[in-house]
Specification:
single chain; 298 residues; alpha+beta; four-stranded antiparallel sheet; 6 helices; 38% strand
Length: 298
């Protein structure tokens, strides 16, 4: 499948901004299930400086600065990605080790073997350690359950027991608050699931990207009405010390991401992969508009 993604961000500033520096994560990754075919980033007004590099998690991070006064900023990322069905999580007793064995593998011990996935066991800014995550997680993690089966059960519980409500949280709303109120958006659902997994000592990471939506029968595809999406990757070690793999779960939609998903960035939480953030000199109030279109190409 080929997917065309246009992600447009507009800021209107009152009064104007004098200078600004921004970092964006808007370039889709190359992964085992997707290939980036085309990408263009258009910035208005024209930036004074731009640079691109790969961060510690393998994401493309673009920096740009604006050194002239401006009352509007427009950033448009235009990408074409070829996607394939990713490897399904191997569920069942033979599919993955018991979750307790995975926890023990990542428990610190002197002279133990280092696994890069260990970084995703620790708390992070948007996913701090909290007893409420552990208490909620235990409902899905019976003794001896294969780690991917338990993760799948946790995903389904979050989908069933929490309500998606677009105006119920803000970007800075703590995940434990979203869990307590039992409602939120995809960012909250992802942070909650990650918090539960890490509370049990299991590696989990945050994934940002896009999802191809399907219009109702007989209705046209609306331009600019899609949105960024977020889901979760869970790590399962390989047998007898072999390399492990990451498997994706989407608690918002109660499914495993497929060829209709596009991955942009992975990290510990939203803070590592936010689509756009920056520092401004001047300005005051601002209005933000974001429009995303994801459509299949013939």
């Amino acid at each position: 499948m080929k997917l065309h993604i246009v992600h447009e961000t507009r800021y209107a500033y009152t009064p104007p901004v004098e200078t600004a520096q921004h970092i964006v994560h808007l370039k889709p990754r190359d992964t085992g299930s997707q290939s980036l075919l085309q990408h263009e980033l258009v910035i208005t007004p024209v930036e004074t400086r731009r640079s691109e590099r790969i961060d510690v998690y393998g994401n493309t991070r673009t920096f740009f600065s604006l050194q002239s006064v401006h009352d509007e900023l427009r950033v448009v990322a235009d990408s074409v990605v070829a996607t394939r069905e990713p490897a399904a999580a191997p569920l069942g007793a033979e599919g993955s080790p018991a979750w307790e064995a995975v926890r023990e593998q990542f428990r610190y011990r002197a002279g133990g073997r280092w696994d890069p996935a260990a970084e995703f066991v620790f708390p992070s800014e948007y996913v701090p350690r909290h007893d409420d995550f552990a208490a909620y997680a235990h409902g899905s993690f019976a003794a001896g359950t294969p780690v991917l089966d338990a993760a799948d059960a946790l995903m389904r519980r979050i989908h069933a027991e929490l309500r998606y409500e677009s105006d119920s949280t803000e970007v800075e709303t703590p995940a434990v608050q979203a869990l307590a109120q039992r409602r939120g958006v995809c960012q909250d659902f992802a942070h909650i699931m990650i918090g539960c997994l890490r509370a049990l000592g299991l590696p989990a990471r945050y994934v940002s990207g896009y999802l191809l939506t399907t219009p109702a029968p007989g209705q046209p595809r609306l331009v600019g009405c899609d949105a960024s999406h977020a889901w979760v990757s869970v790590y399962a070690p390989g047998p007898e010390g072999a390399a492990g793999a990451w498997y994706d779960f989407d608690p918002t939609n109660e499914r495993a991401p497929g060829a209709d998903y596009v991955t942009v960035a992975v990290g510990r939480d939203f803070g590592d992969v936010s689509p756009m953030r920056g520092l401004l000199l001047g300005g005051g109030e601002h209005q933000l508009q974001v429009a995303v279109t994801v459509e299949p190409l013939a």
